[in-house]
Amino acid sequence: MSDTNMMRVAVIGGEGIGPEVTSQARRVLSWFTERRNLPVVMQDASFGVEAYRRTGKVIPDETRAAIDGADAILFGATGGPETTEVPTEARKEGSLLKLRRSLDLYANVRPILTDPALYGSAPLKERVLKGVDFVIVRELSSGVYFGEPRGIETLADGTRRGFNTTSYTEEEIRRVARFSFELARSRRGRLCSVDKANVLETSVLWREVVIALHEAEFADVELSHMYVDNAAMQIVRAPAQFDVMVTDNIFGDILSDCAAMAAGSLGMLPSASLGPADAHGRRNAIYEPVHGSAPDIAGKGIANPLGSILSVAMMLRLTLKQAEDATLLERAVNDVLAGGARTADIAGPGETALSTSAMGDAVLASLDRLAA
Ligand code: IPM
Ligand code: MG
């Protein structure tokens, strides 16, 4: 196959545990290129404090070039105590938020699935976890994360005041709502829109736009609305009630961490952040685990790589259009969990914890077995 037919994946480990988990996900992606002729070339690119020390930029020029030329990005994590050594301006210039925004990644897809093998070690009870299979779609390119004006100002009396702005245009709401209705249609046909319309104007508009779109184009999808405080409670009380949930940027940030408990562990969750589809149906995309940089365990080789590995499965399905390979990888992960492989975050009492790379080995061995 000529190079032009190859899809390009930029691999960016980033900071904290990002590089450790990403290197396992990278091995998994290599397995598919080598064993299943997946037409992908990978390009490793540096990002974060380490890149800043070397080049004076959090996103060095060669990383930017890799990003611009990529069909998809596999990202690890960002954040941690060392990041304070990067001056605020350089930090902002190279932030993950800015990267998401520059690629117009408006739909952040976070599937919440409980593997029965984890019922025992999960913080919630088995009867609560049974049947959990839903997706949070978080608006990712607007809202209070990006709204202007923002800042910290000093008032006339010398005291300081911090301020941010939540803002959403109708079109920003409509496009993420449309994405979510379509997703619901491909699943169990139910969409729950989460807002705070009893208090916030942005939420009043959010609800109006969602309802209008429902009536105009998606009457076959069952639509419900929930206030965000109630949604937080329902996610831990009865998470199996949800199919697709759509919400704004900051509510989605908070609710998806909350929903991690309905999946057994934050370390298990993958995500895809997607931009608008072009004429060929291609979208800018970043695939990354939902967990952050976890500075307390960074460099110890004990982090759970499954969130990153399952992000590769999402990449296989959504960007590389290899649904069969995606399913194969998800089965491999199910199998290693069913076989008792555990990293520290998902190990129950008395269970031995594997290292990050040993968990990677287990997934590769399982892929070998399934492919044989
Ligand atoms: C996430 C993270 C990020 C966010 C941080 C690292 C800026 O918490 O992806 O959920 O708030 O979006
Ligand atoms: Mg978050």
Topology at a glance:
Elements: E1 7-14, H1 18-35, E2 40-44, H2 49-55, H3 61-68, E3 72-77, H4 88-93, H5 96-102, E4 107-113, H6 126-129, E5 133-139, E6 151-154, E7 160-163, H7 170-186, E8 190-195, H8 201-217, E9 222-227, H9 228-237, E10 244-247, H10 249-260, E11 270-274, E12 285-289, H11 306-318, H12 323-338, H13 356-371
Parallel strand pairs: 1-2, 1-3, 3-12, 5-10, 8-9, 8-10
Antiparallel strand pairs: 4-5, 4-11, 6-7, 11-12
Helix pairs in contact: 1-11, 1-13, 7-8, 9-10, 11-12, 12-13
Average per-residue pLDDT, rounded, comes to: 96
> Biggest β-sheet: count, sense, barrel?
10 strands, mixed
- Compute the gyration radius: what is it? 21 Å
**How would you sum up the global shape?**
globular
**Total strands:** 12
> In terms of structural class, how would the helical and strand content be classed?
alpha/beta
Beta-strand level of the residues, as a percent range? 15-25%
Describe the structure.
The chain has 13 helices and 12 strands. By secondary structure, the chain is an alpha/beta fold. The longest helix is centred in the N-terminal third of the chain and has 18 residues, at 18-35. It is globular. The mean pLDDT is 96. Magnesium ion binds next to helix 10.
Features:
alpha/beta; ten-stranded mixed beta sheet; 18% strand; binds 3-isopropylmalic acid; 372 residues; 12 strands; binds magnesium ion; two-stranded antiparallel sheet; globular
